[in-house]
Design a protein that fits this description.
This protein is globular. Strand 7 (174-178), helix 7 (186-203) and strand 8 (206-210) form a beta-alpha-beta unit. It is an alpha/beta fold. The chain contains ten helices and ten strands. Helix 4 packs across helix 5.
């Protein structure tokens, strides 16, 4: 299919490139020659049905799952060529917001946010800068007052914000969002979508957003890729794709 790409696709540097990615589990072919390019400062949404391979794709990008074949480049580095230490170093530039939030229930909000600093900063760097980094990240998500609270004391929307604060504390160049609004009520989901846009604007992050929440997609997407039958089936802006007559694309936009 043909599509019109936003202007920034021609201007921004490539942050992530996925070329001809294939992944199967036994006889089940999840990704089939799937390709994408993510540009600097862009919010790219991957839209597909449940079980279509969206989460498999994002886990391949961060190398939590090894692909069957294909090439993934992040910040000009072919991730298949990196050893564990090099991959860990790259992950400091790639934030991952898990669908489950993945907060440590036994730790305060402060300790949850300090956790990635312990992995990527020296003891001296943490002593000098951890407190200010934690407070800035919490201010970014509007929850500085929760710094000494436990996750169990927070609402679902607040836990999502804290998880996002932990994701951005290292100032990543890329954020991977896995269903960021799933399980949230519409008002809270809209607030998280607005927050994602503010993070993009403040830090010029490039983001891959896995979602089937059409309100979130409408608010955040600079560009959308339709993941259908394991392939990059169609691609464009929300305004482009809502006009498509192809029935496999149309069913995602019915009623809008």
């Amino acid at each position: 299919m043909s599509w019109d790409l936003p202007d920034f696709m021609a201007k921004g540097d490539s942050i992530i490139e996925v070329n001809n990615l294939n992944k199967s589990f036994g006889q089940h072919h999840v990704l089939r020659d799937f390709s994408l390019t993510l540009s600097e400062g862009e919010n790219l949404v991957i839209l597909g049905k449940s079980g279509s391979g969206k989460s498999v794709l994002i886990k391949c990008i961060i190398r939590l799952i090894e692909p069957g074949s294909g090439r993934i480049t992040i910040l000009d580095q072919d991730i298949s060529l990196l050893d564990q230490d090099e991959m860990d170093l790259l992950r400091a530039d790639v934030g991952f917001l898990f669908q489950s939030n993945a907060l440590y229930d036994s730790m305060t909000v402060r300790k949850n946010l300090e956790f990635p600093l312990r992995r990527h900063w020296t003891k001296e760097e943490r002593a000098a800068n951890a407190e200010s980094a934690v407070k800035e990240a919490l201010e970014d998500v509007g929850l500085l007052h929760t710094i000494d609270m436990m996750p169990a004391e927070l609402s679902g929307g607040m836990r999502k914000r804290i998880a996002l604060a932990r994701t951005i504390i290292l100032k990543p160049k890329v954020i991977l969002y896995d269903e960021p609004t799933t399980g949230l009520d519409p008002i809270t989901g809209r607030e998280i979508s607005e927050l994602m846009n503010r993070i993009q604007e403040k830090y010029n992050t490039a983001s891959v957003i896995i979602s089937h929440d059409m309100n979130c997609i409408r608010m955040t997407a600079n560009r959308i890729i339709m993941l259908i039958e394991g392939k990059n089936y169609a691609e464009g802006t929300f305004e482009n794709l809502i006009k498509y007559q192809d029935p496999k694309v149309r069913e995602f936009f019915e009623g809008l």
